[in-house]
Structures are given as C-alpha cells and as structure tokens.
Amino acid sequence: MQNNFTPQDAADLIEAYYQRGFTDGFPVVPPSQDSVSAMLAAASLQQDQVIGEIVTRNVVITADKVALNAVMAGCLPEYMPVVVSAVRGICHPDFNYHGMATSTGGAALTILVNGPMADRIGLNSGENLFGPGFRANMTIGRALRLLMMNSLNTRPGGLDRSTIGTPAKISFCFAENEQRSPWEPFHVERGFHPGESTTTVFACQDIIQVYNQLAQTPEPFLEGVADAMANMGSMNIVSQQNLIVVLAGEHLRLMTKAGWKKQQVKHYLFDHARRSVAELKKVKRIPGEVQAGDETTYRHVVNQPDDIVVVSGGGDVGTFSACLLSWGGSRSATAMVTTRI
Amino acid sequence: MDFALFDPTIPAQPESIHYAPRPKRLNNLKLALIENTKYNSKTILLKLFKELEDRYQVQLAGVIRKQSAGHPVTAADLETCAKTADIAIAGIGD
C-alpha cells in the first residue's frame, strides 16, 4: 500500500494511478483492501504466498501483487485462479519470459483456457473469439499484461523494446470451444483430465485469419492455413518453435464431415507448411547463396506435427479460422487452474 | 473520504556479482566463446578469436551455443567454461 490521499471524485483516484504510471493507457479499477482480499480469497491464497519466479529477472511474484493487478484490470474474484495459473505458466523456463517480453519482436502474451473453469467464469470460446465484449477474456488477459508492466517492469522503453508490437499485447485470452469439437481438448492432449482446467501461455507474434468459403474437403482449406503458417516474413519460418491453429465452426465441420482426426490435420499442416531452402535463401531469411539441392530441400515451419496446437474456437457461422504464429524463442507452457470453488 | 493508493510494483532482488580476476596478459590463454544464436554472433566471435590468436596466440577452448538469445547460459555450460577456459567472450549480434 502507498500513501493515503483524498481524491475529489472517482476520476481523481483513477488519475492518481495514471500519474504513477501504473496503467496500460486505459483507466484501471482502483483497488481497495477489500477487493484485493476478495481476490486472494477466491484462489485460497495468502498475500505473501509465492506464485512463481522469473529467474532471469530476479523477480519473485507474490500473490498480493497478482491480486492487485487483477483488481486493477477489472477481474472478478472468480477469475483469480485462472490469472494465477497463467502467472505460473509464464514462470516456466520453456516459456522464456524475459525473451518474449523484451524482444523487439513485440509478442502478445496469449492465454488459452481449457476445462470446465472456462464456462464457469463466462470465458468466450465462440463468436468474436479474439474481439471485445467479454469481461473474463478482456480482464484476465489485461491482468497479465498489467502484471508484466507494473510488477515485472516490462514497460515500453524499459524492458519492453517492441519495434511495432500488436494490440493483442493489451489483452489476449480465449477458451477452447470444447463442446463443439469432435476431438479431445488440448489440455487432455497435454496429459490433464477433461475435468481439470488449465491455462496455456503462448508468445504470439502474429495473428493471421484464414478465409476459405469454397473448400468442400479439408485439403484446399488446409493449404491456405499452411500458407499462412509458412509466410516468409514470420519468425516461425526460421525459429521453428510452435504455433496455434484455431478452427472455427464451418471449417471444423469440414474436417468432421470428412472424418478427419486432429492428428491428421496436424500431419497435413506439418507436411505442407514448409519452404525450400532455396526460397528462404533467395529472400534472405536464412544466410548463404543457393546451392545445388536447395530447391528440393525443405524446412518445415515446426519440427514435428505436435508442435502445431489445433483447437476449436470462434463463431459457428463464417468461413474464417486463424493461425497464431509464435515469437522465436518461446515454447507454450500449460499449468493447472487450482481452485476450491 | 480517504483512499489508499496501492503499489503494484515488485522490486528486483539485488544480487552481488563477483567478477573473476582479470588476467594481466592475454598471451597463450584459452578462450571460450559464448554465442547467442543470432545471425553473425558466431561470425563476429570467431573473427575476434582470430585477431586474438594472431596477436596473443590465444587458443580456442570451445564455442558454447545458448538455447536462444533470450535464455541464460546453462549452469553446466558455465562449469565447462570455467574448467576449460581462462577467458570468455559473449557475443550478441543480429
């Protein structure tokens, strides 16, 4: 807690947080002792409890700071277990927080939520999946970004050196539409029970929508997805880390109608999302002059099919899906949502 | 009505760093290179080594490649570096 002061009105109090640089540019919800306590209680946490550590920043994240940022972001207390789970995710060494947060690449912190918790707190997994209008989605994503800025010193001009960045850096959280999917949810692929809830944090460099309204079979549509995955300007094409493909209703039905399994989709995308070494050398994405054999030697966007996360999400109607390409040096990390609710 | 202003910041924990003793001369020392995977990092480091080799007969003990530019050098690599080299140069490059 800082000093006490007497604001003239609510706007004056909000302005005080602006003055101290504790916002992302939007107004924050001024916390009170009661609202912070409610946030902690919802996740059964003590204020000084350690949630995780960013070793490369020498910073230990305690529950009270997570709760503060969650209140400031506009979260309801019942969102807190999801926020805490995502904080644990960004502390995983594979996620490489310092790299993704500081890089000129300007990646967005993406939070994918799986399991029953998503419905319980009203997380959107359908129409307008990445858009505004859903409190849980917007405020959980924002809570993480405020924590990054306020508590982990990831501020523009400081330890956030994004050349361009993306509006998704403000907030980017969505749930998999598990009810609509004919396949097992993503967290089950990662070894969790369907009744458990998880967050998966992912450093998203680019969001590319893929449009196809004429395909009657999976292959022509997936060619478009593979092309988006293998775009010559992406970090993914060189770093070969991981990525997320979100299949919306009509495209998902295309897969189901053809009897395709999720693994089949992954393998198809893995095989087709590639560039020849010659192509990559010609556009100077990899060094060197084109040599004999480069035209027929291929570099895939990822190292293996399971590096492609395929999830269901978005509206039932409309022939749009999406590719989320990753920032170069980060792997997604999944953590359980722990709750007594 | 009085309101409290809450501070959401977390100060980084200060850590004292002990520098290794600096050699007085570079002649015939063993050199480790730590490259960060970015383009030209290794190229620049090897050019530096060549220069040091020509001037001071420095020998190359090894090249350590980090997991990525954003990852720290692993403890195992640091141990190898300490065992096999007298001096090290870390390169960034891009």
In DSSP terms, counting alpha (H) and pi (I) runs of 4 or more, how many helices of chain A? 13
Please give the number of β-strands of chain B: 4
- How large, in whole angstroms, is the Cα Rg of chain B? 19 Å
Number of strands of chain A: 12
Largest sheet of chain A: 7 strands, mixed
What does this protein structure show overall?
With 341 residues, chain A is an alpha+beta fold. Chain A contains 13 helices and 12 strands. In chain A, strands 4, 5, 6, 7, 10, 11 and 12 form a 7-stranded mixed sheet that branches. In chain A, strand 2 (50-54) and strand 3 form a beta hairpin. Helices cover 28% and strands 20% of the residues of chain B. A 3-stranded parallel sheet of chain B has the order 3-2-4, with helices on both faces.
Q: What attributes characterize this protein structure?
A:
heterodimer; A: about 350 residues; alpha+beta; seven-stranded mixed beta sheet; two-stranded antiparallel ribbon; B: about 90 residues; alpha/beta; three-stranded parallel beta sheet; 2 helices
Provide a compact summary of the structure.
Chain A is an alpha+beta fold and 341 residues long. In chain A, 34% of the residues lie in helices and 18% in strands. In chain A, strands 4, 5, 6, 7, 10, 11 and 12 form a 7-stranded mixed β-sheet that branches. A two-stranded antiparallel sheet of chain A has the order 2-3. A two-stranded antiparallel ribbon of chain A has the order 8-9.
Secondary structure layout:
The complex is a heterodimer of chains A (341) and B (94).
Chain A: E1 4-5, H1 10-19, H2 33-42, E2 50-54, E3 59-62, H3 63-73, H4 80-90, H5 97-102, E4 108-114, H6 117-120, H7 135-151, E5 173-175, H8 186-189, E6 198-211, H9 218-229, H10 236-239, E7 243-247, H11 249-257, H12 262-272, E8 274-276, H13 277-282, E9 298-300, E10 308-312, E11 320-326, E12 333-336
Parallel strand pairs in A: 4-5, 7-10
Antiparallel strand pairs in A: 2-3, 4-6, 6-11, 6-12, 7-11, 8-9
Helix pairs in contact in A: 2-3, 3-4, 3-7, 4-7, 9-12
Chain B: E1 3-4, E2 30-35, H1 41-56, E3 59-65, H2 75-84, E4 87-90
Parallel strand pairs in B: 2-3, 2-4
